[in-house]
Amino acid sequence: MSTLRTWASTFTIQPGVLTNVLKLMKAKGDFLTEEEKLTVISFDETYISHRICYDKKFEKVYGPHRCVQTVVARGLLSNWKQPIFYNYDTSMTKELLNNIIQALHENGFNVIAIVSDMGSSNVGLWRDMGISITNTSFKHPMTNRNVHVFADVPHMLKLARNHFLDQGFILPNGKYIGKNILQQLIKLNE
Q1: Which of 8, 22, 92, 119 has the least CB density, counted as fewest CB within 10 Å?
Q2: CA distance 5 to 128
Q3: Reduced to 3 states, what is the DSSP secondary structure of residue 76?
Q4: In this predicted structure, what is the pLDDT of residue 61?
């Protein structure tokens, strides 16, 4: 255990691309097939506490921050998942995304798809990358193959629910349906 603790204490997890994690992924990738290394990355901003923290090892103060951007790589055809990037108060940009895809490629993992929610900063990223209803992919910065873009389905369902409750829907026949129908159903069940 003491050997493992000593080794783990040298492992740095500074904000940005987690290069030590990528080194471990590369070593593990030697035992995976090319299909098992097909990679999907997902990213999301998470709002965090506005606390200030002190890192004794690096004598550095972190915070206060509004949010953290986290990127997770996972296998498309294989059951593995690994955080590979985080940074505070950072929106995903075309340059950052391409740098992450390139870092994964250099370590033997081929990114073929990305997944994100449809927050305003991600919609802006999609626009910068030329993603639209008719164009749902962009070129991999290293291989020039398509990287497919997907919206996060649970987030889309949550947005549809919120829109239904806040504003309702107008059906193709022109009829309005809103939360009033749910309120009537609750009264019937009483």
Answers
A1: 8
A2: 44
A3: coil
A4: 86
Using a 10 angstrom Cβ sphere, with 0-12 exposed, 13-18 middle and 19 or more buried, the burial of residue 138 is: buried
Number of Cβ atoms within 10 Å of the Cβ of 62: 13
Gap between the Cα atoms of 167 and 76, Å rounded: 37
Average the pLDDT over 170-181 and give the result. Answer: 90
Q: String of b and e for 94-113 (b: at least 16 CB within 10 Å)?
A: bebbbebbebbbebbbbbbb
Exposed e or buried b for every residue in 63-86, given b needs 16+ CB within 10 A?
Answer: eebeebbbbbbebeeeeeebebbb
pLDDT tens readout for residues 54-101: 888 778 888 899 999 999 999 999 999 999 999 999 999 999 999 999
Rounded CA gap, 25 and 27, in Å? 5
For residues 10 and 91, the answer to whether their CB atoms sit within 8 Å is no
Cβ count near 122 (within 10 Å): 22
On whether the pTM is more than 0.85, the answer is no
| Residue pointed to by tokens 């990213």 | 43
Q: Is 66 helix (H, G, I), strand (E, B) or coil?
A: coil
